[in-house]
Amino acid sequence: MKYGKLTEKKKRLDGFRPLPDAIVRNLNDWFRIELTYTSNAIEGNTLSRHETALVVEKGLTVGGKFLTEHLEATNHVRALDWVKKQVKRKPTSLSQKDILYIHDIILKGIDDATTGHYRSVPVRISGSAVVLPNPRKVPDLMANFVEWLSVDEKLHPVELAAEAHYRLVTIHPFVDGNGRTARLLMNMILLMMGYPAAIIRKRDRLAYIDSLEKARLDGQKKDYLKIIAKAVDRSLDIYLKAVMGEDAEQPENEVLLKIGQLAKQVGENNSTIRHWTKEGLLEVAEVTKAGYQLYAPDMIERVKQIHTLKKQRLTLQEIKDRI
Asked: How many angstroms separate the CA atoms of 84 and 209, rounded?
């Protein structure tokens, strides 16, 4: 995985530091809601982006939503606020206590019996073939994990953050809240290293989960690392646009396309779209209960990229490596 583009963008951003207070406040407020909304949405929370903002910023309750969903929003914001206070530290200083504290905040009032404690029971991931570590091994695995963090391996900051996230979810030390804790840990490391937080968009949920599954089953992390790198790249773009006075980032369009709708808009047939999806060139945003694959609108631009690269007589693998 190459990170040169991310390094260059960070250098450009560093050239604008210190950022104006008004821009910092605006970006902090935007990321605060977006990170909370997306991280919880990945885990099945049904609060919309707007509803998340109402709960977090106004303290309002949303009719028809579970109390747990409200707590997941307020807890995530509290955990994120704590994470931001750690930015002057170094990743090598992180301890088990820090990770347990994040988890404690995440599940406070939701599952007080397990919050801030490693699991003592075996668990499985629903729908996954991944076999998780025996609970008796978790304390030693976590000790080894923190020891790994304490050694400066000279990894690129984005790779370090992604690897920390991957190792934590692979250990799966908690009964619940592993994903949210891992994403907060990843973003804490990114912030410590001067990078903006990575937002795993709701539309990327399936690709993100599948990439983690693939990495844990056969050790192939390429797709997973690419998803994290793209998330950091988008965040860098948001910051750069803000400091250069360009239009602010607009929330993702959550109107998803059926395969026939996508094929029609890009002038392809359904079988080609299915083939490109199977080959990993296109990403499925969601699968309905009836088994239909849905695509985010940005896959329209992805197909245009594929068309352009096909004209250069590249193979599908070469195209996949470029997009």
From this structure: 26
Report the interhelical angle of 21-42 vs 222-243 (nearest 10°). Answer: 150
Let me know: does 56 contact 77? Beta carbons within 8 Å. Answer: yes
End-to-end CA distance of the chain: 13
Q: Which residues pair with 294 in a beta bridge?
A: 258, 286
Structural domains in the chain, CATH included, are 4-243 (1.10.3290.10), 257-322 (1.10.1660.10)
pLDDT digits (tens, 9 = 90+) for 255-294: 889 999 999 999 999 999 999 998 889 988 877 777 888 8
Residue type, 302: R
197: which 2 tokens?
A: 């937080």
Whether residue 291 contacts residue 254, with contact meaning beta carbons closer than 8 Å, is answered with no
Can you say how many angstroms the Cα of residue 1 is from the centroid of all Cα atoms in its chain? 17
- C-alpha 177/C-alpha 114 separation (Å) is 10
In tens, the pLDDT along 96-146 reads: 999 999 999 999 999 999 999 999 999 988 888 899 999 999 999 999 999
- Under DSSP, is residue 257 helix (H, G, I), strand (E, B) or coil? strand
Q: Which residues pair with 286 in a beta bridge?
A: 294
Q: Please tell me which residue in 165, 172, 275, 307 is annotated as part of the active site.
A: 172
Distant-in-sequence, close-in-space partners of 12: CB < 8 Å, separation ≥ 6: 240
Greatest distance between any 2 Cα atoms in the chain: 59
C-alpha R_g of the chain: 20
| 172 is a catalytic site residue | yes
Q: Is 258 helix (H, G, I), strand (E, B) or coil?
A: strand
Q: Count of CB atoms within 10 A of residue 108's CB?
A: 16
